[in-house]
Amino acid sequence: xxYAILCYAHEExxxxxxxxxxxxxxxxxxxxxxxxxxxGKLGPVGRLMPTTAATTVRKGKDEPLVIDGPFAETKEAxxxxxxxxxxxxxxxxxxSKQLSSVNPGSTSYEIRPFYVFRPGDASS
Length: 124
What we know:
Layout: E1 2-9, H1 11-14, H2 19-39, E2 42-47, E3 55-58, E4 65-68, E5 77-85, H3 89-102, E6 106-114
Antiparallel strand pairs: 1-5, 1-6, 2-5, 3-4
């Protein structure tokens, strides 16, 4: 089953890292990710830009409204995501625990079953 693992973090912490701090964290995250990538179980992984770069389209009374920023003000924000292929939820939990242990910027990892309803290659 595919799972989306959503990484939440305090943006002010993560986006304040120096290039050296960022590289050190990414090296640890790559070490956790590599066995899954080698086995073909790791799908797309992405980091989102800060919420200050977000645009939200919200349903309006007559037509959709386009507004700057996220839809809600929160202390932590969705920072990025993983798509992984595991047989069980326990495997997804174990992977999320590994990510959490090496990522000092994360506050939580949310795990949701993931359904691909329109397969395709977004890289083109």
